[in-house]
Amino acid sequence: MSEEAVTVPGEDPPYTPDFDISKPTIARVYDAVLGGKDNFAVDREGAAIMLKYLPGAREAGLDNRAGLERGVAYMAKQGIDQFLDIGAGLPTVRNTHEVAQEINPDAKVMYVDNDPIVLAHGRALLAKNESTSIATADLRDPPSILNHPDVLKMLDFDRPIGLMIIGLIMHFHVDEQPGNWIRELVDALPSGSYLHITDFVDTGRPEQDAFQRSCLQALGNGWSRTPEEIEAHFQGLPLQPPGLDFISRWFPEDPDREVPAVEDLEDHQRIMMAGVAYKA
Ligand SMILES: C[S@@+](CC[C@H](N)C(=O)[O-])C[C@H]1O[C@@H](n2cnc3c(N)ncnc32)[C@H](O)[C@@H]1O
């Protein structure tokens, strides 16, 4: 285990991590790709690999953040006032609680991530926000989320919830059957809830293949899936208009909006798709 002093805003004396910084983590590499500062040399090396294979990797990440924002805004405008954001990531611009609470100041947001650095930074950011909390738990173990005392304190599972699994499922191989974990989570949601997902897509394009290879080299995981495979993540729940689409064409809050034609998309705009489904 290698340690380095890190300064976490609001933590005095500086927080000393008990996590391994000799290997890249998904949260920190993603932070480095987005141009954030909460990462180490090993993570920046991972980000550099991704940028080498896909020079627009940062823009692809920003596209994903834009998709997150649109999905949260859509759900909040449908009346959702509780969000469960799994694989929250390190705080960045326009976090889920900021978007949701701009639309409904009383909206509650529960962040979950399995990387302890996310908890440390999230706690510092959220110290004064009683409607938002963060817990360390694991998508691969749904009861670790559903029975977490902080989750149960923040969210009322008898009222509709916006479940978000954004930029996370690609990190699990098909053999791990992530659909089983999603199903368990969806089963715990009451009717009137939404499921918002973004994932790496494979429509046979070379840039998608290059990006997958960069993730496997940088992180040891990161698999793209066909649109049909991504649609299956939604467990049969009906997708809301405009359905599943490349994120820069996906505007659930304005489904009739004019969007760029698929053939006009740039390489980085063909990396991820988004969708939001409704549990009746
Ligand atoms: C690529 S980031 C996405 C962050 C954010 N959702 C977004 O889309 O901008 C994936 C996040 O999922 C977290 N993660 C990875 N495996 C996880 C797991 N098994 N359970 C919960 N979180 C996980 C990582 O630590 C990381 O913060």
Observed structural traits:
binds S-adenosylmethionine, alpha/beta, 7-stranded mixed beta sheet, globular, disordered N terminus, 14% strand, 10 helices, Rossmann fold, single chain, 280 residues
Characterise the protein shown here:
This protein has helices spanning about 25-35, 40-55, 55-75, 95-105, 115-125, 140-145, 150-155, 180-185, 205-220, 225-230, and strands at about 80-85, 110-115, 130-135, 160-165, 195-200, 245, 270-280. Helix 2 (about 40-55) runs antiparallel to helix 9 (about 205-220) and helix 3 runs parallel beside helix 4 (about 95-105). The chain has a single domain, classed as 3-Layer(aba) Sandwich (Rossmann fold), CATH 3.40.50. A 7-stranded mixed sheet has the order 3-2-1-4-5-7-6. It is of the alpha/beta class and about 280 residues long. About 45% of the residues are buried. It binds S-adenosylmethionine. S-adenosylmethionine binds next to helix 1 and helix 3. S-adenosylmethionine (SAM) binds near residues 26, 88, 114, 118 and 171.
